[in-house]
Amino acid sequence: MINEIKKINLNNWILIAMVLGFIVGMALNLFVTDTFIKDTLLVDNIFHFGGTAFINLMKMLVVPLVFCSIVVGTASIINTKKIGNITIEIIVLYLATTLIAVCLGVLISTVLQPGNGLNMAGSVYTSNITANVTLTDNLLNMIPSNPISSLANGEIIPTIIFALIVGSILSILKEETSAVRNFFTQFNKIMIKMTFIVMKLAPIGVFCLMATTFATLGIDALMPLFKFIICVILAIIIQAVIIYPILMMIFTRLSPVNFIKKYSPVLLFAFSSTSSNATIPLNLEKLSQLGISNEISSLSIPLGATINMDGNAIMQGCAIMFATQAYGMDLGLSALITIIFTAVIASVSAAGIPSAAIISMNMLFMSVGLPLDIIAIIMGIDHFLDMFRTAINVLGDAVCTIIVSFRNNALDKDIFNGKKG
Ligand code: ASP
Fold first, then answer.
1. Would 188 be classed as within a structural domain?
2. Domain that holds residue 191
3. Residue at 135 is within a domain
């Protein structure tokens, strides 16, 4: 029995914690009238402690993790001198599809309003997105006038910009600064290990936050969560069956149907493994069977698994709207543009590993000053959404690779169309 319990993996523990949190929360909401036991003892103390401790631990990870991984990543990309015209073309396409994905998430969530009904407006929080700040001010705030204070205050965008500058200079100074580069590489490893350790506590955090939400709001909290799932999956379907085929038709005139038929095993693998990184070998093999030159795909697919995450971007767009609706915030246009821009960066900086979107979401919410409680609630359903996200993340990499290969005569049309083996 104990051995069987040990075999349950973390995702399943999180799911179990979510269901238990729901049951305990609903039981408190419906059957416990004693306000001392329900509110004072459980919700305001025990659950509050468990939930907030977990959120604080997640917050602890974000700034050092983002800073180190960006310094290390920038230093190595520039160092390999891989930045040629084709790379730039790939990066532009990756950023464009990510932007479309965020906007799609924002749009669908604006129409379906998943956060309405999850009334969290009573919570105490301080947001730094305000409707009346101009876009120029928002852009100026991104420049780190004092990087140490940005790091200390968890201001993510200035932190990223400072990390990009440090990483680029490390790559210019090469051997002269190898000690600093090694330091950041090793510190990055520490942060990744720390993330795994903190995530082991996720079931406790998720249980406490779910129990608090349902004890306070009752069954009314279920519908918003369900609507959120619908928004993410709907946006993913639109990106897959409308946006990508349109892009393929415009840039290559190749048949998307033909492509998907042969490519579906990669999608299934991504769906079940929930890791773009783990899907890289299969992705490369399938693209080569489709007549795409290895020269481009061997660069674009690993790069895409690191920076191009359209499913993740959709999730960021939906989550931020879900949260602002739940907290009853009105976003002006300039705040919305800033959020979209930040969501693109948050998704670019995610790794191709299971549940990376949760870390991106922490970073996005912290950078706009939203509380992280909602993220812990979303975490309970994250594995389910991660399967769809990873499939679309991988599909996006393949579609952009096909477009760039076609434009650079690195795609054999006859093989692609099945006329040649
Ligand atoms: N699991 C995803 C991937 O590997 C990342 C995420 O969206 O969480 O692509």
1. yes
2. 2-416
3. yes
Q: Which atom of ligand 1 approaches the CA of 279 most closely?
A: 4
Q: What's the predicted TM-score (pTM) here? A: 0.79
- Residue 396 placed within a domain: yes
**CA separation (Å) from 126 to 143, 192, 283?**
21, 29, 43
Q: Is ligand 1 within 6 A of the CB of residue 275?
A: yes
Establish how many alpha carbons lie within 13 A of residue 349's alpha carbon, considering only the half-sphere containing its beta carbon: 32
Ligand 1 atom nearest to CA at 350: 5
Q: Are 119 and 218 in contact (CB under 8 A)?
A: no
Q: What is the pLDDT of residues 207-241, one digit of tens each?
A: 998 888 888 878 877 889 899 999 999 999 999 99
CA distances from 245 to 46, 108, 396 (A): 51, 19, 11
Cα angle value 210/344/367 (rounded, 5°): 55
pLDDT in tens, 92-120: 999 999 999 999 999 999 999 999 877 77
Which atom of ligand 1 lies closest to the CA of 389?
A: 7
When divided into structural domains, the chain yields a total of 1
Number of H helices, E strands in the chain: 21, 0
Answer positive or negative: Cα dihedral of 318, 320, 325, 331: negative
Question: Does residue 63's CB lie within 6 angstroms of at least one atom of ligand 1?
Answer: no
Other CB atoms within 10 Å distance of the CB of residue 168? 16
Tell me, what CATH number does 199's domain have?
1.10.3860
Beta carbon of 283 within 6 Å of any ligand 1 atom: no
Does 421 map to a domain? no
